Model the fold of this input.
Amino acid sequence: MAKKKRPTTIPTPVKTDSRNCFGIAFFTTKADAARYARHVRERGHTYNGGWFHGRPCGRDASWDHIDKELGQLYAVTE
Done:
């Protein structure tokens, strides 16, 4: 069985935000958000404290929004 080819570069967020227990990285495409989410999961990032302490970070569509300047943004918690 052939191994899946992994992306060689990690996408750079176009916008970031933070909360007490986690950060949010925003991307202009779902593909970039998915690649970054895979990167975050592979490193074992989790929420640090609060109600969701220990929950794995990654792609979270509940934070997606339309930015006035950047358009549709897709969120990844980190």
